[in-house]
Design a protein that fits this description.
The protein has about 350 residues and is mostly beta strands. It has helices at about 5-20, 125-130, 145-150, and strands spanning about 25-45, 50-60, 65-75, 80-90, 95, 105-115, 115-125, 175-185, 190-195, 210-215, 220-230, 235-250, 255-265, 270-285, 290-300, 310-320, 325-335, 350-360. A 16-stranded antiparallel beta barrel has the order 1-3-4-6-7-8-9-10-11-12-13-14-15-16-17-18. β11 (about 220-230) and β12 (about 235-250) form a beta hairpin.
Length: about 350
């Protein structure tokens, strides 16, 4: 890693301490993060990818992605505030940044907020990702293996084409150069987003535009979003939609369901459509133990190829050691269909994991 990159956390930590010490009552700078590590045994998987063999590995961020970040807010008066967020993923088992090329890979934005909402500029999650968050049956756990995140929210669409200013040909979960509006009025949330492709020869290339809606009333939460993307030369497009609901019962039990669909042009003559359906529940078994069970179905259709997909069931148990520390265990079973897993890989895959997550 370059010397400048290695020294960045030290410089930012010093800056945070100085800012906190000199901040007035109307300003705040908060350091936060998650460190999540587990031991995982997988059969038919190489940690999470299909494999003909078995593996025992240490996994970073299985429950919640390991990260650290800064949240900054300044009261400007008259109900107006300046806000910013910088967030970097961590490979906690090695201490390395999650990305070798983008330090603040998860969030990097600044904006202005008021009673009318927040307008933010920078690297931000798409509206599909925002819509998934409150309705995912697994509660956004198991990010590397969660179909709501990977397929419905396009974190790992695996299309082989870069869509939007994501900097990736395998996923479009976060976008650079984005402008996002977020507002909430009487329980109704509205989000708008546009990301600039910054391609000099074509102002539409690598652009992305989205709209999201949500509604919360008592125990009910509804969430939906649509987002479109263009590739780097504006010849191909990708569209995705997510919708779903969650209900929290008296006593803390939660039921959630999600549907996602995307359609992509992968060449002048080829198309790929993917559908995700998920349903799950979380039940407080005791005051300290929560149990989550979720099942997902993913179906894929590609031009001139037979349809394929998979079904995945995940069980999660968490034990609250404190307000900030959780011990957990997880088991998952995947059954591939139509050769989705690739030649020579097993038809079924299973995994079990146990770990600890600490938040600060």
């Amino acid at each position: 890693m370059p010397t400048a990159l290695r020294s960045l956390p030290i410089a930012l930590g010093t800056l945070c301490a100085l800012a906190a010490g000199s901040a007035q009552a109307q300003s705040s700078v908060r350091l936060y993060g998650i460190v999540d590590l587990s031991v995982r045994r997988a059969n038919g998987l190489n940690e999470f990818a299909p494999s003909p063999t078995s593996a025992t590995v240490m996994s970073s961020g299985l429950n919640n992605t390991s990260r650290w970040g800064l949240r900054i807010q300044e009261d400007l008066g008259g109900g107006l505030s300046a806000q910013a967020q910088l967030e970097s993923g961590i490979n906690a088992k090695t201490g390395a940044p999650a990305s070798s090329t983008i330090y603040f890979d998860r969030q990097s934005w600044v904006g202005l907020g008021s009673a009318w909402g927040l307008v933010s500029l920078g690297r931000q999650t798409t509206l599909l990702a925002d819509a998934v968050s409150p309705i995912d049956p697994l509660g956004m756990r198991l990010a590397s293996f969660n179909p709501s995140i990977n397929t419905a929210a396009l974190s790992q669409h695996q299309l082989g084409v870069g869509f939007g200013a994501s900097g990736s040909a395998t996923g479009s979960y976060r976008l650079n150069n984005s402008i996002k509006y977020s507002g909430e009025f009487a329980g109704v949330s509205v989000k708008l987003m546009h990301s600039l492709g910054e391609v000099a020869t074509n102002s539409d290339a690598a652009n992305s535009t989205g709209v999201g809606l949500g509604y919360k009333l008592g125990a009910l939460q509804l969430s939906a979003a649509h987002q479109s993307f263009r590739n780097n030369d504006d010849t191909l497009g990708l569209r995705g939609v997510v919708l779903g609901a969650a209900w929290v019962f008296d006593g803390g039990a939660r039921l959630a369901g999600i549907y996602g669909r995307s359609r992509a042009e992968t060449s002048a003559t080829a198309r790929t459509a993917q559908r995700t359906l998920g349903l799950g529940a979380t039940v407080p078994a005791t005051g300290l133990v929560d149990v989550t069970l979720a099942h997902y179905r993913v179906a894929r259709e590609r031009s001139a190829r037979a349809g394929d997909g998979y079904g995945r069931t995940v069980a999660f148990a968490e034990y609250k050691l404190s307000k900030r520390s959780v011990a957990y265990a997880e088991a998952d079973h995947t059954r591939w269909q139509g050769g989705f897993q690739g030649a020579a890989n097993k038809q079924k895959a299973t995994g079990v994991s146990a770990g600890i997550r600490h938040s600060f």
